[in-house]
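Amino Acid Chain and Its Fold in Token Form
===========================================
Purpose: to set a sequence beside its fold so the mapping can be learned.
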Amino acid sequence: MDYLPQDPAILVSSINMLLRDEEFDSLESLCYAFGREPQEIRDRLAREGFVWSEEQKQFRPRGFDA
């Protein structure tokens, strides 16, 4: 993957996949590899209804983040 997708659903899926498959060990390292700030990604996806779970190391839909 050369860049992070713009579509929110595909972005969440891509980030979660890269973290799950251990391509990256943290959201921070993933974001920096793609030239993005972690807070920028968190904020953007929060506006789309997703929350970051540090414990699970994935974005989850709001309401399913427990």
User: Anything to note?
Assistant: The chain has a mean pLDDT of 93.
